[in-house]
């Protein structure tokens, strides 16, 4: 026992014992919470009584024996030193008290019980002839009715007798006990001793008392906060702590361990408090943080004072603080102990009450989820609002649960359509194939004109899953039913058309826009001005339609600066990234894509992770890094299933196929040439796949098959008004096939067409076209064209195309008999090809590099004249890095890079970066 903490209460009992020894009786009513140390106090005091020479009689009441008449009295007399005649008398009185029928004669049952109680009191008083008497009774609140009457009768008679009654009790809702307590406290010789929970100092003492058993104890302040000073709970924490510390052996946990022993102790406390308090604890556990005494009274249909009493008892027991459970494990233990049907009933009632009280939707919805019922009309809007809040907090699985429950019993057709649409979008974010099961219902809703909110979502989901016919029907239905005065609905439809035009052009052919349909820009509506989807798709369309890429790049960056990943299929992030990518701003697209990929991983959004990985793979491919492209493409395919990709599967397959071809892994590439489903070829992603397959056929010398794929790709792009070399430079590869077939005129025509396409000059596709044109030109013209191509490709950052161009340039010089220059170009190409890990190129280069040549083509004095800064910049430029990349690596501005290069060209007597030697930097020196 915590003697220092309980010394004040023990001192009061000892004082009353001294009075009893002096011949005066008294009553001590020791009141405290369950398991707060009342029994321990009784045991310590019993030792004091025995040491004083007084007689100590003890009894313990229990709930199980509460219906046994005179059960407590029987225990007392059984332990008393009675004579034979007194023992016989006691046995007879017990028999008479237990009987349900009055004895012979005119005595009633009540009179009989009164007489028996009187004789028991006399019998006990007679024991004082042997000396002072102390009677201790634990848990008097559970004493039977006749025993309570006996104690009341004895209390009235002991003022002048050396008898001390010590009664332990804790507050429960028992009318009989309230009457008994009131009578006791009305006597002047009755003293009430309140036993509170342990203070933090008392908790520390208790922990110190058990140091031998549990040498590595948790901090006493944390134990006090969790247990509320309840010794039973503290010992349970010690047991849990010791069990875990023993299991890990190497190091004890720093804080308290809350496990099985603690949960069991919590249940012991609430069950010992009685059925009313137990029910109250269960109600508070169900209500959680929203629980108040007033709400508890309504939940359990009890009077408010009774609810206040429940909270008071549980607070005294250390389970509650400020009306709520001190620790989540305590609440969980009580919740788990509620029977299934009772728990469902309580949660349903709690949801109703909290809704009436205007509680937050998430709080109400948590109860609806637990009881799994949505039969009331108000439940569906609440669940939907809670789901939207869950999405804001990235609790996607919780949002799915809420929406599924809302959808299940929703009777209103329009509301059900809205809930189903939101559910499909949220499930798409986690697993697009799971969202596909909702398509039939969405199709029906669209046909019935029930889509009053976001009209784009159902059509977007249909398109993602390749349901082009249903999507066109839905779009025509939307044209007929949408309110044209609703600016948001008109904006949504325009967003849908832009998105379809960029990715599903066939939809617009099947469902053309009606004449006179308003454009969102016509009214300059607020929705059109602030809609990020509209801004992103406009930028993407601008790039694909070859209008003004500078404005598109600015708009795309503004979108990316303003948006985070959402849950809609037509999220603005992807088109904004693609606008940067197809505008050849890979220096901007790559960092944005990496940041968004990290966000998608942290927010557990598999669909977004997959789509962003595809964009990152395409960026890597355009940077001439086929290994990174393969890695990102495989990551995309692994994030979600092939079925979940829908028609978008063409993108990762096409990029992976192109990467495998560039790496020379033709056996793996061959397996991918038959992987795309037919519906893919009606989409933008199908063009990526067709182009990649055509390049593979070219690489393995299947010229007619390759020409067929590339020509089909070009025809579809032209029909869709998407024939942008920055998207798919199909003409360059078709021209190379024509060259191999001996059709030089057709090859040259294709190369020149690519060069004359709008907005091609100064782009990656322009460099590719120049290289192709060089292959169609006379030998003497090739070096000039290839040097220009190399400069453009290096500036755009495509190392693989740069390596191939340098290889072509080396071969051209070799054919012209310029061996020194051929070997220098070959060394540069070898270095870049090694970075790209393209074995096929290195095999071609081995011809030029077979003969040793150590004579430089430039004056070595020029090299030594370079400053350290100029040398670092020139070295990186020679390795194929763009000015922007060099600036980023060396932490200088692009303008500074240009100035260093200009001075390096002059000192080295070269005209451009193509002529820079690869051995500028001494071996082992840092370049970044």
Automatic annotation (TrEMBL):
Protein name, entry field: DNA-binding CsgD family transcriptional regulator
PROSITE patterns on file: HTH_LUXR_1, HTH_LUXR_2
SUPFAM superfamilies (UniProt xref): C-terminal effector domain of the bipartite response regulators, P-loop containing nucleoside triphosphate hydrolases
Family annotation (PANTHER family): TESTICULAR SOLUBLE ADENYLYL CYCLASE, TRANSCRIPTIONAL ACTIVATOR DOMAIN
GO molecular function, one term: DNA binding
Domain HTH luxR-type: 859-924
InterPro entries (alphabetical): AAA_16, P-loop_NTPase, Sig_transdc_resp-reg_C-effctor, Tscrpt_reg_LuxR_C, WH-like_DNA-bd_sf
Keyword entries, A-Z: ATP-binding, DNA-binding, Nucleotide-binding
CDD domains: LuxR_C_like (cd06170)
Signal sequence coordinates: none
